[in-house]
Q: What sequence folds into this?
């Protein structure tokens, strides 16, 4: 079980947008620079999130991306599901056991872990993630200083 680079970068971008909510848009180049993400790759990610209604975009000199709805209305599960084409890809259920194929005991354990992971992702809002980052002091460890306005 693991998140792809696309989901990881998508979460970082959504975190940045959540911290600016409801101040207005933030440029994709600003996010890309602060998070050390390739600009074209981040644009692909944000376009995907836009198609699913999680972010909006504004054109012009003061344009950029913004959350399409409040951070408390967006779950981490929605973000990951959008970027991974579902949560099932986090666990492929293909633990091999030599010639016999799938090992039922290991698959049972991994299946339970995957289910719990899905439950946590679906139950955690973007707002809760931002608050947890702040509460744990993780925002101080980050190189950038987004403004926190949740």
A:
């Amino acid at each position: 079980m693991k998140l792809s680079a696309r989901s990881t970068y998508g979460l970082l971008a959504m975190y940045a947008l959540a911290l600016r909510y409801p101040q207005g848009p933030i440029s994709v180049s600003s996010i890309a620079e602060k998070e050390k993400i390739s600009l074209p790759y981040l644009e692909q990610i944000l376009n995907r999130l836009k198609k699913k209604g999680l972010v909006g975009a504004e054109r012009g000199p003061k344009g950029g991306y913004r959350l399409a709805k409040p951070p408390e209305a967006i779950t981490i599960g929605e973000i990951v599901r959008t970027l991974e084409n579902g949560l099932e890809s986090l666990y492929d259920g293909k633990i091999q056991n030599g010639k016999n194929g799938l090992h039922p005991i290991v698959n049972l354990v991994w299946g339970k872990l995957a289910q719990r992971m899905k439950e946590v992702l679906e139950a955690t809002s973007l707002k809760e993630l931002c608050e947890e980052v702040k509460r744990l002091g993780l925002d101080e460890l980050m190189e950038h200083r987004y403004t926190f306005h949740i």
